[in-house]
Amino acid sequence: MCHFAYIRVIKFFLMNISDQGISDNALKLGDLYEATWSDKPLRIIGFDDAEVFYDARWPNNTWTFSGNFKKKGYFYRTPAKTFIKYTKRIDMVLLSIEELEVFRPDLPMRVLRTKNLNWNDFPINDKDKFDYIHESLGADSQNQIIKSNKVVLVPSGRKGGLKKGVAISADNSSYFTPAELIWKAKEIQENQNNEKSNGIGIYRLGFEKRIPSYSIGEYTGEYISSLGLD
Fold it and tell me: How far is CA 112 from CA 43, 190, 222, in A?
């Protein structure tokens, strides 16, 4: 790909990241850091005001996620405040076109978090009558969409942990609306777990075979710590 085409792609991703409301801070995609909790250099591959996703470079100069796009990868993550406090910037390795296409740093890290709905306790079981969804979600969630024609949704088991992901396609072949994403997540989650949840939420995990992946969970705080640090 030529230089100007690369610049256009970079601008596209940065524009979509800006749409998420990320504040102007010191974090930048591709920046390489030393961290107090890791003996490997860490490279930012996604972030917002609450959370940072990062890759790790191993002694043989390979990465945990980059270059392993045909596999399944759940991003390393930590709260943004923790990352900023306990790391030191040492270099920058610009994300390639392929990395941008697989990592999709433009996608939101968490969507459709609400206490007003619960898996296995929806007041309606007819998809065609699901218009009330906009009344159940907060104002921000009503306009949240996933700008991808495919995603992998990963349900949560009864005893915790993640089950096998299910790839779904957007009805309009372009993006997922809030109602569509919730309804499809409902079917996947309730097939795996018949317990009533404490609210709902959908959280970015990483990718599976180049497709963005999200976990189906409950309502939690902005940062999900269950995946831990590197």
Answer: 28, 17, 11
DSSP states along the chain: --HHHHHHHHHHHHHHHHTTT----S--TTEEEEETT-SS-EEEEEE-SSEEEEEEB-TTS-BSSTT-TTSEEE-EEEEHHHHHHSEEEEEE-PPPHHHHHHH-TTS-SEEEEESS--TT--S---GGGGGGHHHHS-HHHHT--B--SEEEEEPBPTTSSB---EEEE-TTSS-B-HHHHHHHHHHHHHHH--SPPSSEEEEEEEEETTEEEEEEE----SS--TT---
Residue tagged 């920046």 (tokens): 31
Residues 46 and 121 in one domain: no
Q: Are residues 128 and 147 in the same domain?
A: yes
Q: What is the pLDDT of residues 2-41, one digit of tens each?
A: 444 444 555 555 555 544 444 445 899 999 999 999 999 9
Domain hosting residue 174, numbered range: 110-217
**Which amino acid type is present at position 212?**
P
pLDDT in tens, 131-145: 666 667 775 676 788
35 and 86 assigned to the same domain: yes
Does 16 share its domain with 94? yes
CA distance 41 to 91: 9
Q: Is the pTM of this model over 0.90?
A: no
What do you get for the CA distance between the two ends of the chain, in Å?
33
Contact of 222 with 110, CB cutoff 8 Å = yes
Kindly state whether residue 228 falls inside one of the protein's structural domains: no
